Amino acid sequence: MPISKRAYSDTEKQEREQKILDAAETLLTQKGFGAINMSEIARTADIAKGTLYLYFQTKEELFLTLFQRKFVSLMEKLRHALSALATPTTKAQVRDTLIAHTIDERQMIRLMALSNIIFEYNISYEKALEYKLLLGQAGTTVGSVIDEKLGLQSGQGVQILYRMYVFIIGMENLANPAPVIQQIYENEKTIEHPEFEDELRELLTMVFDAV
Question: Which of 45, 128, 130, 153 is the most core-located residue (most Cβ within 10 A)?
Answer without folding.
Answer: 45
